[in-house]
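User: Design a sequence. Structure:
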């Protein structure tokens, strides 16, 4: 009797899973046929050879660190605009600056691609993942916080943590090669925590190791989900250990920011807007909410904090790491940068903000580093209404 019950249970579950698989295949096939119908409008555009159902998915079917290089090589073979397919997803790729400028300035192209939903689960709906009217409203209110005159007030904080980093790196002098990104990652975390959310941390001395591990691992899992189609199916992803791992990372990060938000809200309600001369990004966001009540809820503030933190910390760490590597690979330019620093600042004088404007060689190194290793090399937009760009007519 027990055997029959077990057999009946297995049969019911087998039918259930077979039905699920059939439905998924049916949806994929339907979306493929729909995208194929849309392709007829752009058959004149060049692009790599498509495979049935797969499209050009084999281009990104490789190690994660090789994906960007493969895409650059593929996109470099065809004029802009070009077509590119990954399974049922159909993309028009634009590379010319004038075309990209039109995309970024067209109101009907402010909706992000569905792929941003995977980032949204981890980061929330901040400036990176928000779309349409919400993105335009938030961008208008938050952009002034990123202006140079606002960021300049944080120079003393940056200098203080940079000096701590210098003292730590002195112990690595004359030793074998080491991973400088490990140290830069923690120094930038201390700077970002103090300037964006107003919390003094000691990440350079191991205080935030679990938090930083969750940040790194969370984005690794998001990236893995983007490039592996079977992880994009929600119910399949939830069956994997990666879902539990991503959920824990999200809870650790958002929990940290919730705690900070409650602390800052208490002081904000008592001190008001102009009590502190150097106001953090979070305090300025609370100022905006005082003036524009529908700007954001507490949960949306958490999303903005996570986005600001991730974008600032990862960007600064990546730029500095790549710049140091480039200087190591090209010692002749390293010498020019060092000589310039000696002539502008000297050995004894303390660095000040005015010195930075005179370090032309260093600025050129950073700009060339950004050209070689762009922070956001791909921007994905979803068409909400027809628009003509170059030789292509983008349809909804």
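Assistant: Done.
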């Amino acid at each position: 009797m027990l055997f029959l019950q077990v057999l009946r249970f297995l049969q019911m579950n087998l039918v259930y899973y077979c039905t699920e698989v059939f439905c998924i295949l049916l949806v994929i096939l339907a979306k493929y046929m729909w995208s194929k119908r849309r392709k007829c409008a752009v058959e004149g555009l060049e692009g790599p050879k498509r495979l049935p159902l797969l499209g050009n998915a084999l281009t990104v079917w490789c190690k994660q660190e090789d994906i960007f290089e493969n895409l650059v090589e593929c996109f470099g073979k065809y004029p802009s605009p070009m077509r590119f397919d990954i399974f049922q997803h159909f993309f028009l790729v634009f590379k010319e600056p004038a075309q990209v400028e039109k995309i970024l300035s067209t109101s009907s192209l402010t909706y992000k691609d569905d792929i941003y939903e995977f980032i949204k689960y981890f980061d929330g709906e901040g400036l990176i993942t928000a779309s349409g009217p919400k993105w335009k409203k938030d961008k208008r209110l938050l952009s002034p916080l990123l202006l140079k005159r606002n960021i300049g007030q944080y120079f003393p904080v940056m200098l203080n943590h940079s000096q701590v980093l210098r003292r730590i790196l002195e112990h690595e002098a004359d030793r074998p090669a080491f991973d400088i990104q490990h140290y830069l990652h923690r120094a930038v975390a201390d700077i970002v925590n103090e300037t964006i959310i107003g919390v003094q941390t000691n990440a350079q001395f191991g205080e935030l190791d679990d938090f930083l591990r969750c940040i790194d691992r969370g984005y690794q899992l998001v990236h893995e989900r983007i490039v592996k189609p079977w992880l994009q199916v929600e119910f399949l992803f939830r069956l994997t250990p990666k879902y539990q791992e991503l959920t824990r990372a999200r809870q650790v990060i958002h929990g940290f920011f919730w705690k900070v938000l409650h602390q800052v809200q208490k002081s904000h309600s008592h001190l008001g807007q102009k009590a502190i001369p150097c106001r953090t990004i979070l305090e300025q966001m609370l100022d905006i909410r005082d003036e524009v009540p529908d700007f954001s809820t507490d949960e949306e503030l958490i999303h903005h904090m996570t986005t600001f933190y991730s974008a600032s910390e990862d960007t600064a760490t990546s730029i500095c790491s790549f710049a140091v590597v480039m200087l190591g690979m090209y010692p002749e330019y390293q010498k020019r940068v060092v000589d310039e620093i000696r002539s502008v600042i000297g050995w004894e004088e303390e660095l000040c903000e005015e010195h930075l404007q005179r370090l032309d060689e260093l600025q050129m190194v950073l700009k060339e580093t950004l050209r070689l290793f762009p922070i956001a090399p791909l921007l994905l937009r979803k068409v909400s209404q027809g628009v003509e760009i170059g030789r292509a007519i983008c349809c909804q």
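The mean pLDDT is 83. Residues 186 and 206 are 8 Å apart (CA to CA).
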